Every structure is written in structure tokens, then in C-alpha cells.
């Protein structure tokens, strides 16, 4: 089968302390400090054979994520930009859907022919955090497309317990290709859902929601805010095509934060009351936090979903006076996140189909990632 494989050299920066665990596991905790000269190409690979607890999924659609772009982009010294947990070589790709074509002997709740999507986080289920109900904080985490082979390939073998059926979406749409394309958006949408409704505990219908950053996660957050009954949803995004997408998925207005003061827009839109719920999906807290801080409604919530390896000041007095709260969130597993996103999609209340702005065949995978690196459109899919 064909697979889009990333290879890179293990060449830790002189000032990076490689731990024994990293050396033994071959996994870098901070990928951007270890992996140099990343090389991406479509290769011929063996079709995986599912273990007893796994299914073999024929991949039909696989989204390109910002992290895939960060694998490919390098700094001046040739180190990849992606700062997280990684082990290479690996087939990339972690936002996918497909058809179950084979199942291991122990798999009982999936059938050949089922349409599925899957979690990206291969949580172990037996470490302390997993046992205590925190799969997104699993200490034995593997991640498809990061530390183990991913879904930018014709087939992937994956544990059945990470898969979720999307047949119900197909029943509404009656169009298998469209179902599979929308199904591949479940993973990024579940990242937004986990941050907004699990980590931050959501907002009340009628409350005002601001979303900073309208990349795929921010766009999903806008759609979810709308579906959950926000009284108003306002988006901030520097790219004009992405602002258009924000409007398509449910924002009441979308603004370029380099052309105006976001906090002023929010205060004006709320008659001075401020906004109740803020989603940071820009990964630019040095710009977004001061604006959010200046437009906090009493009791406001801020959830940080975008990734940024920087420290930013926050005036805590302001949080106290406004009785505001800041939440951190990562991941998408557990808490009903995936099934609830699938239900919303199957009902039509969440429709992220417009955010798909590019489709490439797997053979053009490198070109697809180059296109995504322009960061101007919505989600780019590899389709087979
Ligand atoms: Zn991703
Ligand atoms: Zn675990």
C-alpha cells in the first residue's frame, strides 16, 4: 500500500537534555528540540495486519492538521517546528475516516463494512490518569501519526476501542463520500468540544461567545457554540478566506484583529457587558489574552486550546474583579466527546462540511501539506 511517511534525524540540540526514557523509547518529548532534517514522501509500505483487538480500516479521507504542517516546516537550524511527542519514521495523519475491512478475533462491537472515525490518542487504559478518568493525560500515550503509524495511507490497523461508528451520519446524508469526509472532521471538532464543554464546562444558552483563530479547531468551536445555543458568536481571524468560513459555520461576525481592537468589538457587541465565553484557538496568547482580559463579562470563562510554547502575562486583578476563570485543555478522548460530536453532525445541527476547502489524492500528500502550510483556507483532506 501507499503511505505518506515522515523521516527525520535524531539529532538533539546541544542544550537539550535527552532523558533515559526518550533514549529507550525512541520518543522525543519535545520534537522540535530533537528531530532535524524532516523528509516527507509517499512510500510503498506493507499493509498492516490487525492484532486481535484491532480492526483494519481502509482509509477514505484523512485531514491535514496544523501539526502535520509543523512536522514539515523547520527553523533556521533545520529542526522541525512541531514541539510535541514524536517518534519517526512514522506514517503521518490522524484525522480520518474509513471502512472496516477486517477485524481481529477479539473485536465484538464493530463489523466489516462499518464506517468509522477514530481517536488519535492511543491511551493505555491502565496508568494512573487513565484509571482516574483522564485519558487525555495518559502517561503511556501513543499517538497515531506522531509516535505510531497514522492514517495518511491506504490502510491503518487500530484498536477497536478507539473507533467510533459514523454510520448515523450516512443515514442522514445518504452519500457515502460526503459522510466519510465529514467524518474525518470529528477528531478536530472533538478537540474543540473537549475544551469547551468538558474542560471549561460550557456556557449557558444565550451567552456570548468569542472565538480567537478560525483555523479548523476555531471553526469547529464556532459551529459548536452556535449548536449549543450561544446568543452571539464573534470570531477573530487574520485570514480573509477563513473569516468567510467562520461566517459559513455560524459566526455572527468575523473580524481581522490586526485592523481593529478585538476587545472594543466585543464590548460594543455586548453593550459594555463583555463576553461570557472565550475560546483561544489561535495559539497566539501574547495577542489574544490582553484582548480577552479587557472584555470579560462577570463570571466569564476562557479556554486555551491553541498551542503556544510561550509565557504570557495576565493581570490577575482583572480575573478577580470579574470572577473569571481560565481553563487549559488538550486532547479529545473520553467524556462522550466523540459520540456527542457525531450525534450533532448526524442531526445536522453541526455542519462543518463547508470548512473542507481542498482535496488531494494520497499520492499528492506532500503537495497537500505544502498547500496547508499557506494557512489561508480551511481543512485539506487526502482522499482515496
Ligand atoms: Zn490534529
Ligand atoms: Zn494511560
Explained architecture:
- The chain has 384 residues and is of the alpha/beta class.
- It has 2 domains: 2-185 and 352-383, Medium-chain alcohol dehydrogenases, catalytic domain (Quinone Oxidoreductase, Chain A, domain 1); 189-328, NAD(P)-binding Rossmann-like Domain (Rossmann fold), CATH 3.40.50.720.
- It contains 13 helices and 18 strands.
- Strands 3, 5, 6, 9, 10, 17 and 18 form a 7-stranded mixed β-sheet that branches.
- Helix 4 (167-173) runs parallel beside helix 12 and helix 6 (186-199) crosses helix 12.
- The longest helix is centred in the middle third of the chain and has 14 residues, at 186-199.
- The model has no long low-confidence stretch (mean pLDDT 96).
- The structure holds zinc ion (ZN) (2 copies).
- One zinc ion is lined by residues 65, 67, 94-95, 188.
Distance between the termini: 12 Å
Kindly report the oligomeric state of this protein.
Answer: single chain
Radius of gyration: 20 Å
Q: Tally the helices: what do you get?
A: 13
Question: Which compounds are bound in this model?
Answer: zinc ion
**Total of domains:** 2
CATH H-tier superfamily of the largest domain: Medium-chain alcohol dehydrogenases, catalytic domain
Count the E strands: 18
Strand percentage:
25-35%
Low-confidence region ranges: none
Helix fraction, binned, reads 25-40%
Rough shape?
A: globular
**Main β-sheet description:** 7 strands, mixed
Question: What is the name of the CATH topology of the largest domain?
Answer: Quinone Oxidoreductase, Chain A, domain 1
- Coarse structural class: alpha/beta
Can you identify the CATH class of the largest domain? Alpha Beta
Named at the architecture level, the CATH assignment of the largest domain is: Alpha-Beta Complex
pLDDT average, as an integer? Answer: 96
Amino acid at each position: 500500500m501507499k503511505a505518506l511517511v515522515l523521516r527525520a534525524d535524531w539529532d538533539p540540540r546541544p542544550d537539550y537534555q535527552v532523558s533515559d526514557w526518550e533514549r529507550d523509547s525512541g520518543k522525543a518529548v519535545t520534537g522540535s528540540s530533537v528531530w532535524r532534517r524532516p523528509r516527507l514522501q509517499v512510500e510503498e509500505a506493507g499493509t498492516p495486519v490487525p492484532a486481535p483487538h484491532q480492526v483494519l480500516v481502509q482509509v477514505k479521507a484523512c485531514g491535514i492538521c496544523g501539526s502535520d504542517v509543523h512536522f514539515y516546516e523547520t527553523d533556521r537550524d533545520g529542526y522541525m517546528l512541531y514541539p510535541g511527542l514524536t517518534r519517526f519514521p512514522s506514517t503521518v495523519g490522524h484525522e480520518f475516516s474509513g471502512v472496516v475491512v477486517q477485524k481481529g478475533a477479539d473485536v465484538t462491537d464493530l463489523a466489516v463494512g462499518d464506517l468509522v472515525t477514530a481517536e488519535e490518542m492511543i491511551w493505555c487504559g491502565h496508568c494512573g490518569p487513565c484509571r482516574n478518568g483522564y485519558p487525555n493525560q495518559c502517561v503511556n500515550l501513543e499517538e497515531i501519526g506522531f509516535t505510531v503509524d497514522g492514517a495518511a495511507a491506504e490502510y491503518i490497523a487500530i484498536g477497536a476501542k478507539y473507533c467510533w461508528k459514523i454510520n448515523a451520519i450516512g443515514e442522514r446524508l445518504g452519500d457515502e463520500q460526503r459522510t466519510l469526509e465529514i467524518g474525518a472532521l470529528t477528531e478536530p471538532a472533538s478537540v474543540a468540544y473537549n475544551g469547551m464543554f468538558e474542560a471549561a464546562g460550557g456556557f449557558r444558552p444565550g451567552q456570548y461567545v468569542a472565538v480567537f483563530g478560525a483555523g479548523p479547531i476555531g471553526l469547529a468551536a464556532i459551529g459548536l457554540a452556535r449548536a449549543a445555543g450561544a446568543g452571539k458568536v464573534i470570531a477573530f481571524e487574520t485570514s480573509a478566506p477563513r473569516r468567510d468560513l467562520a461566517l459559513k459555520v455560524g459566526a455572527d461576525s468575523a473580524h481581522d484583529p490586526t485592523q481593529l481592537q478585538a476587545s472594543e468589538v466585543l464590548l460594543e457587541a455586548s453593550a459594555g457587558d463583555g463576553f461570557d465565553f472565550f475560546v483561544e484557538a489561535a495559539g497566539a496568547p501574547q495577542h489574544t489574552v490582553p484582548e480577552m482580559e479587557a472584555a470579560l463579562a462577570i463570571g466569564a470563562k476562557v479556554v486555551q486550546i491553541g498551542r503556544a510554547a510561550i509565557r504570557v502575562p495576565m493581570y490577575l486583578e482583572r480575573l478577580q474583579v470579574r470572577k473569571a476563570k481560565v481553563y487549559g485543555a488538550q486532547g479529545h478522548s473520553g467524556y462522550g466527546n466523540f459520540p456527542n460530536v457525531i450525534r450533532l453532525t448526524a442531526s445536522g445541527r453541526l455542519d462543518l462540511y463547508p470548512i473542507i476547502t481542498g482535496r488531494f489524492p494520497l499520492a499528492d500528500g506532500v503537495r497537500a501539506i505544502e498547500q496547508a502550510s499557506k494557512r489561508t483556507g480551511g481543512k485539506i483532506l487526502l482522499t482515496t
